[in-house]
Amino acid sequence: MAEADPRHSEKSALEPQTLHDSAAGETPVATNPRRRKALGGVAAAVLLVGGGYGGWYALVGSHHVSTDDAYVGADTAQITPMVAGQVAAVEVEDTQMVRRGQVLVRIDDSDARIALANAEAQLATTKRKFGQTSATSDALAADVQARADAIASAHAQLSAAQAAFDKASIDLDRRRKLQPSGAVSADELTSAINSYAAAKGDLDHARASLSQAQSNQGSARGSLAANQALIAGTTVATNPDVLAAQAKVDQARLDLSRTVIRAPVDGVVTSRLVQVGQRLAPGADVMKLVPVNQLYVDANFKEGQLTHVRPGQQVTLKSDLYGGNVVYHGRVLGSSGGTGAAFALIPAQNATGNWIKIVQRLPVRISLDPRELSEHPLRVGLSMDADIDI
């Protein structure tokens, strides 16, 4: 009898078991070297990417905060007239770029020119009055001197009258003493009495003339003092009346210059509302000027991002207008005094039972480089991406 092959017996013994395992739905584990190598490569790549990101965040990412909730802004110049009048010409159009000092609107200046002419005429009249007042002072000073001479003359007349009166008084007394003895006739006595009375009258008249001369001198001195008070310590250039008239001339000249409205800054004309022939009142809205070379960005950062944000930190910005190829550089100027919700017309009311916390955003003002703005102009309201190096 031939001996059975042991390998054949082992194989026969294993076949039922293999068939049983396959029937039970179990798949043997494959040991494909390529698959194991691919899985190892993926795991290594994941670890490498994770490590790279961790290193980047530790060295770079943790030192930056960014937001895409940022928009270009500017301190827009509101153009309004300062004098009333009818519009004679409008020199600019919407979207037009203008320079500082360029004429925007001309207002009819006829009334302003007439007002200036009247003010200049009033100034000339006031200056003439000042000259007249100065000349009057000289005349009054001469009059005071004439009154002094009149007083001196009155004093001389009074002295002569007093001497004549004294002589007449002595003559009368002598004749009265001799009259009882008959040495003086009645006619001589009467003549002496008449002479005495005439001398007394001349003396009283001389005294009155002196008093009147002194009064006239006092009046002349008062007139001189009053006139001097009007011009004392002043010249034609510093006299109050002349200064008031000059101020009216300056005001009229200023009003005339304001009939030409000029651009206060370099910028782009926006919202032009004025038309030729329109009657303007002071303060009426005419147009707006956007200073495109003085723009800034208001970036709204989440409150948790602002822990280390400080004024002066460098910022890189990108605009949706130009894409990522154009990078702007700026600096943090400061942050707002409150969130947008705090200053909203209708502030949020959180004192309710269904309150849900919402992360707030605070506007951060960022300056822009004027040189970069001139190379790649922006407009107010455009979206920006801002990244602050903290």
List the helices and strands and how they pair.
Blueprint lengths: L5 H18 L9 H27 L4 E10 L3 E3 L5 E6 L6 E2 L4 E5 L2 H69 L7 H46 L8 H18 L2 E3 L4 E4 L8 E2 L6 E4 L5 E7 L11 E6 L3 E13 L25 E8 L1 H6 L7 E7 L1
Antiparallel strand pairs: 1-10, 1-14, 2-9, 3-5, 3-8, 4-7, 5-6, 7-9, 10-13, 11-12, 11-14, 12-13
As a whole number of angstroms, the C-alpha radius of gyration is: 56 Å
Strand residue content? 15-25%
At the first level of CATH, what is the class of the largest domain?
Mainly Alpha
Morphology call:
rod-shaped
For the biggest β-sheet, the strand order reads 1-10-13-12-11-14
Q: How far from one another are the termini?
A: 95 Å
Q: What name goes with the CATH superfamily of the largest domain?
A: Helix Hairpins
Low-confidence stretches: 1-30
Polypeptide structure, described:
- This protein is of the alpha+beta class and 390 residues long.
- The protein folds into three domains: 65-75 and 291-389, Efflux pump adaptor protein, beta barrel domain (Elongation Factor Tu (Ef-tu), domain 3, Beta Barrel), CATH 2.40.30.170; 77-108 and 259-289, RNA polymerase II/Efflux pump adaptor protein, barrel-sandwich hybrid domain (OB fold (Dihydrolipoamide Acetyltransferase, E2P)); 112-254, Helix Hairpins (Orthogonal Bundle), CATH 1.10.287.
- Helix content is 47%, strand content 21%.
- It is built from six helices and 14 strands.
- The strands form three sheets. The protein has a six-stranded antiparallel β-barrel with strand order 1-10-13-12-11-14.
- Helix 3 (110-178) packs antiparallel against helix 4 (186-231) and helix 3 (110-178) runs antiparallel to helix 5.
- The longest helix is centred in the middle third of the chain and has 69 residues, at 110-178.
- The model is unreliable at 1-30 (pLDDT under 50).
